[in-house]
Amino acid sequence: MLKQVLLLSLATTAALGLQDDARSHGHLSKRFTFPLPQSQGSETLSKPQVIDGEVFDGGMKTYGRGVSCTEGEGGDNDAVFWVQNGGTLKNAIIGADQLEGVHCMGSCTIENVWWEAVCEDALTLKDGQGPFTVIGGGAQKAQDKVIQHNSGGTVSISGFTVYNFGKLYRSCGNCKQMFERHVKIDGVTAVEGKNLVGINSNYGDTATIAGGVCASNVDEICQEFEGNDTGASLLRPAADLVIVASIPSLSLHAHK
Known about the structure:
Layout: E1 3-8, H1 19-24, H2 27-30, E2 42-44, E3 49-51, E4 55-64, E5 81-83, E6 87-94, E7 102-104, E8 108-115, E9 123-125, E10 132-135, E11 138-149, E12 153-158, E13 161-171, E14 181-186, E15 189-200, E16 206-209, E17 214-225, E18 240-246, E19 249-255
């Protein structure tokens, strides 16, 4: 029988708000206010703004597309920003009047970027093997995913705030081309969500969660799926989840 192992490493176990600890601190979510920065103006774009391997400082303005969020999935042309390989988007607010948020077309850095409301996804990693880096910023009102990882490589998420969400990070479960993907999280504040992380254990995905992560009223910290490249519906592994905890690390072993 194949044994798949997910290692969730914690720099400081006590610093991570796992399920039991999160429930004991449920009062945090009752008084939580999403810290959306004050906008310094607004711009409505007629097409995605391309950041071509350079640094774009948004000056803490709000950027949108002048459309209402719909239930249907948009495409590249519905994004607010395209960040090309090597590009950086910093100091910007993505307004609620858009569908697809930010698309990274290669290695990118997203720094101090805030989403007023997430429609389909806040940030989609489309191409390349990274690295992809998210520093600071935050997102709220995401019915499903905040960060969608379609390409390969590693995503680092540091100091991000997420509120009222489905998943902070999701490794694409049924893309036409599947990859091994990795996510590293530290210093994240997560309030009122379903999953902090969703990965495909059958493709070798891993999640590493370091210290300083506070999760309040989050149903599951790491959810495993069985991904596929056929577009079929996703399955949660029919496996017994055995949790072996020790300080300073915690390992989750999924036995098949």
